Amino acid sequence: MTNKTNHGLRELAQLAGVSKSTASRVISGNGYASPEVKERVLQAAETLRYKPNAVARAMVTKRTNNLGVIVFREQPPIVSHPLYGKIIDEILVASEARGYSVFLKTDREMSLRSTDFLLEQRVDGLILVSRLQKNVIDYVKKFNLPYLMVNGSTDDPEVIHLVSNDETGGGRAADYLHGQGHRKFFVIAGPIEHRSHSLRLAGFTRRLEQLGISTQSSAVKIVPSPESNFAYGIKLMEEHYQVFIDQGYSALFTTNDMLALGAMKLLLDRGVRIPQEVAVMGYDDIELGSMYSPSLSTVSVDATGIGRDAVELLDKLIRGVTDLPKLVEYNSHVVIRQSTEGKE
Amino acid sequence: MTNKTNHGLRELAQLAGVSKSTASRVISGNGYASPEVKERVLQAAETLRYKPNAVARAMVTKRTNNLGVIVFREQPPIVSHPLYGKIIDEILVASEARGYSVFLKTDREMSLRSTDFLLEQRVDGLILVSRLQKNVIDYVKKFNLPYLMVNGSTDDPEVIHLVSNDETGGGRAADYLHGQGHRKFFVIAGPIEHRSHSLRLAGFTRRLEQLGISTQSSAVKIVPSPESNFAYGIKLMEEHYQVFIDQGYSALFTTNDMLALGAMKLLLDRGVRIPQEVAVMGYDDIELGSMYSPSLSTVSVDATGIGRDAVELLDKLIRGVTDLPKLVEYNSHVVIRQSTEGKE
DNA sequence: CTGAAAGCGCTTACAG
DNA sequence: CTGAAAGCGCTTACAG
């Protein structure tokens, strides 16, 4: 049994009977080496269980082949967040495919700490996920580090960001529900400061107006929610339950699935039949929604495309490719499931 | 505006008018420096926006302060897996608190690639999550690297592993359901090769036997499932639906929540009333279950404790603490929700 | 095709 | 209390 000491290039070279330079060339795959020499080095690497030291390599090449991903969220479910989890999964897979490893960090206080950490780790690039404060991106910009934003909001025209086309998606939801015959809409809208929530709502109401439904009238009731989670879906539906029933709203639209699920659970628990009495529609297409009974109709967000392209674009940035798009939008489409179908 | 070039210790020292050694001492916090000197260096660091190079530091200290986490799963939902996601979230938080950053890797083919990668990155320690093949741990053991296993299975007495006490939990589920008056049990059991599924089932049936219910008789029907996901919950329930109804099983127990949710959805879609006609109980306590309508009764797994302790134990291992426990078990408790309550 | 030498940006004894 | 020097484990021109 070879001992557990980690061997370096020097021991490797020694055992193979070559110089460190030569050993380095065959291990790294850069530069020439005769077949016989190559064979000997590889053989030695095997018996020594040699693992090149990526830290040392990074120091000289000034490339770590590491990416940093920071998810900005105040509340605990971070990786396990149904939408961000999907995006991160995709980032992981796409990174692996391009030879990058990823440091995953979460940042609760929208601080600069995690950014600093990754800067010190000399990651090759940074993916900033979710809404983040302007100061974070102002900070990142001061350094010479490729970065991009996923699912955040910014007016900064310099910043590359990937978002789903929430306004169009909101419009499609309105279109679909209207097409199903609905004329009275109850809407629970997540935090207006959050780009996606505000655009989804804007798209939804604009489309209703175009369809001849005044969103100022009693045909549309919009309830704002300070948070976009399950608990608030329940809470707000509970608070407005009486109005909801009395006014005869036949369709419920929320700016994300979690709110929809919460509201739907409250309705189901009170015996309201979905979709027979009320049609419910969310946004995001989280896995949970497809598993619900009734399964939740929704508007999809292309988490797979976003995650994949984030890595691809960042890789291009790192490699110095220019003329990259500053804004990449992903199309949303309506996903019809049990919570809205069956309405005749 | 300071330019974007990244400055090194040399420039820092130069600007502060001290030697690199001194600059290093104040930046790293190791060693002495007079208040005035310290002040000057810090000042210079500020104006230069100096970020210590963690790569260089790691090379000399032989400590990266990085941890590697590998999640072994063949199927896509990895980070976004409802249970593993929770554990990973906790690992992230606990790592941060102890000054570690984490490389998150997934491994679909149970290969040695991700392990090698992390070995090359010279992480200080490794957390192996989920079921992994014996060859992976045999491989890791050959290197001089602290590691531990979470939620996996091993007979190797040397390996530190953290698991939930699945057998006891299975027994508690049986106890609870029996106490609710149920005498006919339908069980969907996940892959028997997976430690947690087989122990949950074993605990459940053993306890039933103790309660005087023969698990060989028609009182208990056990259906094995090759996968432990939602789709199989639906599929198996569908296949056995007629038997299920005809035989009058009043309780359904599955070895995880996903299976329970799938089976429950099928029952609900067919109009079976839960819990009035059938009580349903899962295992894991994933967030989804608490949101369902009816919310799912289950047996909890202490994901928070597991994630937190994994980092704590690994940190101790890294710091050379000895006499660590080889096996840490976490208690499970029954979580009663709508899918079983209401039965009188 | 291969090797000697310099250097990546730090830290750490060791002098003084 | 501070600085000069060596060295961590690699890669990369540059000779030969």
3D structure, described in words:
The structure is a homodimer of 344-residue chains. Helices cover 44% and strands 15% of the residues of chain A. With 344 residues, chain A is of the alpha/beta class. Chain A has three domains: 9-52, no CATH class; 66-164 and 304-330, Response regulator (Rossmann fold), CATH 3.40.50; 166-301, Rossmann fold, CATH 3.40.50.2300. In chain A, the strands form three sheets. Chain A has a six-stranded parallel β-sheet with strand order 2-1-3-4-5-11, with helices on both faces. Chain A has a four-stranded parallel β-sheet with strand order 7-6-8-9, sandwiched between helices. In chain A, strands 10-12 form a two-stranded antiparallel sheet. Chain A is elongated and about 85 Å long. At the A-B interface, helix 4, helix 5, strand 2, helix 6 and helix 12 of A face helix 4, helix 5, strand 2, helix 6 and helix 12 of B. The structure holds a DNA duplex (16 and 16 nucleotides).
Largest interface: A-B, 59 and 59 residues
Strand order of the largest sheet of chain A: 2-1-3-4-5-11
Which residue ranges of chain A are poorly predicted, with pLDDT under 50 across at least 5 consecutive positions? Answer: none
Could you state the oligomeric state of the chains shown?
A: homodimer
Helix content of chain A: 40-55%
User: Can you tell me the number of structural domains of chain A?
Assistant: 3
Q: Tell me the number of helical segments of chain A per DSSP (H or I, 4 or more residues long).
A: 14
Tell me the major beta sheet of chain A.
6 strands, parallel
Number of strands of chain A: 12
**Distance between the first and last residues' Cα of chain A:** 74 Å
Note the run of SSEs of chain A as H and E. Answer: HHHHEHEHEHEEHEHEHHEHEHEHEE
Structural class call of chain A reads alpha/beta
Keywords (chains A, B): DNA-binding, Transcription, Transcription regulation
Organism (chains A, B): Paenibacillus rhizolycopersici
InterPro entries (chains A, B): HTH_LacI (IPR000843), LacI/GalR-like_sensor (IPR046335), Lambda_DNA-bd_dom_sf (IPR010982), Peripla_BP_I (IPR028082)
Protein name (chains A, B): LacI family DNA-binding transcriptional regulator
